[in-house]
Amino acid sequence: MDAGSLEDIRQKVGTVPEDILGLMTIQILKGLEYLHKEMKVIHRDIKPSNILVNKRGYLKIADFGVSGRIDSTIACLSSWVGTMTHMSPERLKGEAYYADTELWSVGLIILECAMGKFPFPLDADDSKIGFWEIQNSIETHNPEEPPESFSEEFRDFISIMLNKTPNQRSNCTDLLQHPWGKKYEDVDVMFLKKWIRTLK
Question: Which residue of the set 45, 125, 186, 188 is catalytic?
Fold first, then answer.
């Protein structure tokens, strides 16, 4: 994965264009769909540095050190592991969680890449931020709006993923059928490859 991680890319470019994010998101969701449905695994640490990219335009989900096995996509887990800033609200509260907890994390990643910063009012790059600051920020605030240049379809897609109510974020399969997801499903990965190769 010779282009580094999504975090590396975000740091290089600041913000990622909507069409590029669409192509990336489709790959991430297909990877999670396979994990949840076929492998019966919840990753539990989806964040920009765990999404690896190569110069051919392909993304891979990495680092399964804290992943957990489930019996089905509607099974729940309760272990408290992962990176706090990208945990869903129910995980931050220590509640049981389902496979859709990962959609919250992906929604954060996409919005973070669109905006060039963490979408809640705290500096996610500050290692001194504590648990209570993170939990309070996510519980009491809504995520910031994406830039005006982003489509209404994108906004709707993100709002589904960043629903704070557990088990109400749809699933990977349905999101891939969302108008914003469908828009990018047949776009040649060569488009993403060309964009990645322009990065210095």
Answer: 45
